[in-house]
Amino acid sequence: MKTVPVCLASPRPDSRGALRLLAVVAALTLLTPLASCKKEVPPQVAAVPEVTVMTVAQHDTPVDFEFTAQTQSSREVEIRSRVDGFLDKRMYTEGVLVKTGQTLFQMDPKPFEAALHTAKGQLAQQQARLEVAKANLARVQPLAAQNALSKKDLDDAIGNEKQSAAAVFAAQGEVDTAMLNLGYTTIKSPLNGLSSFARQQDGSYVTATGNSSLLTYVYQLDPMWVNFSISENEMLKYRDEIAAGRLRFPPNNDFSVHLILADGTPYAQQGQIDFANPAFNTETGTFLVRATFANPKNTLRPGQFVKARVGGAIRPNATLVPQRAVLQGAKSHFVWVVGNDGKAHQRVVEVGEWQGDNWFVSDGLKAGERIVVDGALRVTADSQLKIVKELPAVKDPAAVATAASQSGAAAAPAAE
Questions:
Q1: Can you give the residue ranges of the Multidrug resistance protein MdtA-like barrel-sandwich hybrid domain (predicted)?
Q2: 68 with 307: CB under 8 angstroms?
């Protein structure tokens, strides 16, 4: 490339137009080599997104309902004083398991022993009077038969004998009452269970009525009750889904119940629903459901908060897809359906409940269609797709979830 020299002479007053022309020529000469050095950039070609797909299948799918629940002792017994008196001694260790018939408290028995002696003395007196009345009647009856005594004398003798017998009967009742009261001074556990702390201390005066009568609690741990509530809206929704054929309960409502403890670990025993309150709570709009669990190792304690998973229901011909395959649009949920041409087509779907990491799709998909599972965020409408893995249609929802998780792990490096 040659450089054209330009000579600039001193301008004269009459050569201003020629000077402007020379300046334009010089500028064009300098820009020519710069324009010839620019290289054309080829247009960018969009990368084909790599995705994993799954074939949609419909099958009867077990479904669980999860509720927040709380444990309750199947027998929560108040240990109370039945007589008035002084509390001598607490006979158990607070917070330990106690057995049926184990002594928990001992009251001062001496006043009750004295009352028993008095009752026995009165009984003996009445028994002696009864013997005299019987002997008197035995003498009067022959004389009255010989008309040696009047009819009134015979009637008086018979009445005295019966009164004496009744007095003996009443005195025997006093003795039995005194013996019961004496026995009540030894307070025992009526069941095997977990003991609570003592509400009254040694030396306290306790009564058979009022707040001072409560001494402690004993909680039966095996079996254990688990209570949870179902709202009215949930019940109506289940009823509508059953009527529409989208949900089926087990025969005789024989649900199984599993517990998840507060730390996320499952409880080993399976429970059964044994009671459902027929009336709704007017304050909360819910009704109570109770399940019973065996608790042989005393793992469950009263008052624990747990999650109750109620199983046994089935969704007939349900469509279950991984949650990451469903995207949220401006107005609705949608998935990417892979057409026969290998391109992505947006499909609006109606989603229902969760099942683990999957989602029930109640409308919008047909069996046999393929949808994008991993890499859906990189897909655009009518774009060509590169399928790196395909999940086949299976009948086991657990297998779907497992296969989808494995494919997700494999596709994670590609996404990064």
A1: 75-216
A2: yes
Residues with Cβ within 8 Å of 307's Cβ and at least 6 positions away in sequence, in order, are 66, 67, 68, 69, 259, 260
The pLDDT tens digits for 92-130 are 999 999 999 999 999 999 999 999 999 999 999 999 999
Structure tokens at 375: 């890499």
Domain CATH code at residue 275: 2.40.30.170
Q: Which two tokens stand for residue 105?
A: 């408290």
Which whole-number Å values give the CA distances from 216 to 80, 94, 211, 223, 265, in the listed order? 7, 9, 12, 21, 32
How wide is the angle at C-alpha 41 spanned by C-alphas 38 and 46, nearest 5°? 165
C-alpha to C-alpha distance for 148 and 143, rounded to whole angstroms = 5
Residue 373: name the closest of 49, 48, 47 by CA. 49
What is the distance between the alpha carbons of residues 363 and 347, in angstroms, rounded to a whole number? 10
Q: Rounded to an integer, what is the distance from CA 360 to the centroid of its chain?
A: 22
Structure tokens that stand for 306 in this block: 């747990």
Taking the C-alpha atoms of residue 406 and residue 25, their distance in angstroms, rounded to an integer, is 70
Of 96 and 38, the structure prediction assigns the larger pLDDT to 96
- Are 231 and 303 in a shared domain? yes
The owner of tokens 């025993």 is 269
Question: Which residues, listed in sequence order, are joined to residue 77 by a DSSP beta bridge?
Answer: 218
Does 238 share its domain with 311?
A: yes
Span 21-29, mean pLDDT? 51
Angle at 409 between CA 405 and CA 411, to 5 degrees: 115
Element holding 357 (H helix, E strand): none
How far, in Å, CA of 247 to CA of 37, rounded? 73
Q: Strand 386-391 to strand 370-374: parallel, antiparallel, or no bridges (unpaired)?
A: unpaired
Domain that holds residue 118: 109-184
Q: Are 112 and 85 in contact (CB under 8 A)?
A: yes
Separation between Cα atoms, residue 387 and residue 375, nearest integer Å: 10
pLDDT band at 409 (very low <50, low <70, confident <90, very high): very low
State whether 116 and 173 are in the same domain: yes
pLDDT in tens, 356-378: 788 888 888 988 889 998 888 88
Domain contains 378: yes
